[in-house]
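[Q] Does anyone have a clean C-alpha cell version of this?
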Amino acid sequence: MKSEKTVRLQIKLMFTDQGQAQDLQAYAYTSQGGFVGSAALDKGAASVEIPAEFDGRMLDVILGPRVDRDQPVPTAAGLKRMGAYAQPVRFLVEKPRLEIKVPSVVFPKWCLCWVRGRLVKRFTLPDGTHKELPVCNARVHVCEVDRLSIVIPRLPDRDILRLRDDLLDKLRVVPWPIPPRPWPGPGPLRGPLTGPATGPATGPSPGPLAATMQPHAASLASAAPQTGGLSEAASQSVVALATSRSVAQLRARLIDLSSIIAIHLCDLQYLWSWFRVDCLTTANVDSEGRFTALVINDCKDRPDLYFWVEQFQDGAWVTVYRPSIGCGTHWNHACGSEIVLNLPGAVACEEPSYEVPPGVTLFVLPWAVAHVPIWGIPPGSAPAPFGWLRSDGHLDYLDDMPTTALGALYNAPFGGTLNFIHDDSYFIPSSGIKYYRYAYSRVTSGSSPNTGASDPTWTPIATPLARGYRLEYSGGRLPTYESYPVGPATHGPHSGLFEFKPQQPPNPGGTVVASEWLSGNASEVAASWNTLLAAPPLSADNTTDDAGAFEIKIEVFDHAGNQVMPGASTLRFLARNADGTTTRLATPAEEAGGAYVFRVQVDNNGVEAELPQPSIGGVAASDDCGFLRYQAGDSVHVQYRAAHPNNHAVFGFAIKRGSNGLALATTLAPYVEVAAASAPTASAPYNKSAGFYQRDFAPADLVGTCVNAAFAASLGVHAKATNGDQRLGGMDTWKWIAFALAEQEGNGTP
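[A] Here you go.
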C-alpha cells in the first residue's frame, strides 16, 4: 500500500543576472516521466508536495510555464520540448531542499497558442453529389510532435545518409541515372549554386562516405536549374547537402531543410518511429463540429500539432481518426488558423430541415437506408430520382470508391448490414405513442400484403440500440457521456419493440445542471439489419440462392404494446419529395396493415471470375513458363469468365504488352455488365459462348512490331451491391495471368 505521507520539497530559484522570467511553475516527475507534484513559484520559491515513498529516488524538477487549473498537467517531455529548465535531483526526506542558480535568459518567452478547428465528414451521395456534414459527439486530443530539429540529431548515420538521398531525389537535384565518376571529380565544381570554385581536395582520404556522395557532387552543375524554386538559403543548404563529406555536416544541413523535409515526411516511413508525441489537452466538440484549445509554446517557434479523435457511438468512445505521424501532423502551425479534419469513419451529425403537410402534428418519416433516400410509391408512381431507393427495391447510384470508381451503376441490390433511419415528430413519444418496430418479410410469388402487427410472416429486426446523451455538471467538473438503451423489448403481445427517443434524456439531479441528447434522429440508426442472416451467399454449405426482394415495415405502438393504426387522430406516415425540403402523406400503396412498407432487393452473393491461359489450336501457354509459340496463320484464342448468380456485377478486362495497354484487346471503360452478350473493345468485341467471353487474335495484332513479346492480362469483376453507405467492394475478385508469344523456331527465319 502506498504511503500517504508527503514531504515538501523546498525549491529556491536565484537568477545570476538582473533579468526576469515569466510566472513559473515547479514540476516534479519521476525519471520515467511520471507526474509527482507541482507548485507555483512565488518570489523565487516553491514548495512541492512529494510522497515520502520517493525518499532516495531521482526526480526531474522542471521549471516551466504555469497552466490553468482546468488544463491537464503538461508532460515532462512536452515541457522540455518548449524549452523549460530541467534539473535532476535526488530527493531526500531529511534534506528536501533544492537551490537553482541560472541566468534568466535560459527561460524562453512562452505564448498561448489558440488552436481552433472543425471536424467534418465528406462523402459522395448515391446520386453523385458531394456533401459535407459536421461531426459532433466527439473529443479531440491535441498533441505536439517533436520538431525535426530534435529528431534529426537522434537519427543513426545510416538514416542520415538515406534521408539525404531521399530528399535530393524529391528535389530532383540529381538527374538519374548518373554515370560513375572518380572522386572528387574531374575538376572544380562550378555553377550558380556551387559558390567559389575550389581546387582538388587535399589532406586525409575522404573515406567510405565519399563514394556515396559521388553522384551528387558530379552533377551539381546540371542540378542548378531544378533548385531555382527554393529560397537562396535553402538552395545553399541543398548544395551543401550534396557536397558534404561529414555526417555531422549532413545533419546540420538537414536541420536547415526541416521545413522541406516535413512536406515529404508522409513518404519517409522509416522516420516515423523516431518522433515522440505528447498530448497536451483534450477538447470537446460542439454541435457544429468545432473545437478550440489553448496550448503553450515558445513564442519564437510555431507548434507542430497532431490530432486524434474519438466519437461517442453506441454507448462507448470509438477512435474514428488517428492518422500516421508523418501524414497527419500539422507542421509549423499558425496559431489561430482553422484546422479542418475530415473523418470518413465518423458518424456525421445531420439535422434535416423540411416541411410537413398542413395539419400534421404527430408523424413518422422513413428517411433513408444509410445515405440512400427512400422514395416509396408516390402518387402517379413517378420513378425514383437517381440515387434514391426505387419502389422495386433496386438502386441506381454512383460508385466513387478510390480503388475502382466505376461511375454510375444500375439495378444494384443491397447487402451486408443495412442501417435504417427515420425521423419523427418532436411530440413523439406522446400519451398514445411510445414504441416502434421494424420487421422484414421475403417477397415470393405467393406473398400477401401485411395484415398487421401479429402477421406471422414477418420477422422483427431486433439488433440492440442505444442513444447517447451528455451530462453537464456544476463546480467545473467535466461533462460525462452516457447511453440510454431503447430496445429491443417485449410489451404486451409484441416483441422487438424500440422506444422512441424521449424529448429529454435522464437527469439524475444533484450536481447535474443539464442533460442533452447527442444527436438528432437523422444521425441515429433506427434499425440495423444484418442481411447475411436472412440471405446468406451461395457457398459449399449453402446451395440455395437466398437473394431476392424483401419488404420492410415500420409499425408504431402505445405504452402497453398495442399497435397504433395511422390516421388523422393518431399519427401519419410521411414520405420525402425529390426536392429534399418538402414531404407528403404516405399513399395507400405504401401502407398495409397499419404499417409503412417499402421494398429492398438483397443479394450477398459473390462474383465469379476465371482467366485461363490463351491458347493456339487448343494448346494453352505453359503455366510455368508462360510461352505460347506461334507461326504464320495461327490464331491466339483469348477467353475469360465474369459472372454473378443474378447478374448483379460488372467487369473489366485488359491486356498489356510490356507496360503498354492494348486497346484492341481491352474492354471499353468504365465497365461491362456480366449479363451482356458481348464485351466491346476498341476493335472487335469478345462474344459470350458457354459462359465465357471469347475472341481470336492474329499474333501480329498482339505482338505488333515485336517478334516475341510478353503480356499481362487482368480481369476484375465488381459486385454492384451496396449497404447504402458504399459499394461492397469486398465481394470483388481479380484474376491475373502472364504469358508470352514467341515465334516458332524454323518458321521461315534464317
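[Q] Thanks! Anything notable?
[A] The chain has five domains: 6-108, 113-146+275-342, 149-175+234-273, 363-602, 608-743.
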